Amino acid sequence: MIALLMMVIPLIAILVIALIPNKQGDRIVAALAALLCLILSLSVSGSSLSMPWLPGVNSYIALDGSGAGGLLSLLVSIIMFTLIIHAGNQINYRTGSFLSLLLLMQTGLYGIFLAKDLIFFYACWEITLIPSLAMLAIWGREGRKEAMQRYLVYAMAGSLLMLVAIIAVKPISGALSYRFEDLLAATVNLPLNTQIWLFIGLAIAFAVKVPLFPFHSWLVHFTNKITPLAWLMWPAHFIKSVLGAFLLGVCPYFPKPPVPSPLGS
Description:
This protein is mainly alpha-helical. The protein is built from ten helices and two strands. Strand 1 and strand 2 form a beta hairpin. It is globular, with a radius of gyration of 19 Å. The termini are far apart.
């Protein structure tokens, strides 16, 4: 339940900020939400939750704060609390909107590191893209339109490739659901070639997001046009989320040698 609260509290704060268009009030609400999430993240280890989300495809809101995910969530809480306090003092144009985007980013990052369902993980992943794009569009520097177009092309390409690979995993492997535990039990039985192709699809998608050569050309335009304060957020969270998600959500599943049938060939 603690893991779910950490994701819900920033969303509640966003709603309150929208209902109270007061600059000082927005700063207080955002700071309190970030502080509360920081306190909760200290005890998120061991917190777990699993409830149906998209029953048609057997996808769950599955969260688990144990292991590296809990530690990365704590790191998110520390950085976001500091960043929200700083942004509240530095951003004078549409302060509430900027703080709301930071809170939305925080919710998405918690989902990336705590999710134990691949579809839910993907949804949280896409949520984190919205604040980056909005900050570039609203607070970006002159000439940001070209940077936005380039960023959108790469982001959409990477997201589409990731979605195709994620959707394909369950029917190809015969897993009972998209929960990590079910996928882990099923993907080990896949032929090695199939595992490799699924891994390549996900690896390329993550390489676009980091970005790695040769998918990095959008990064120069993005960093040159985004506001400096948003740039502080980007390396602190975005690169960490990509690499962390790749290690937590991809590497454990492919490629592994297929398990031989107990009945033989």
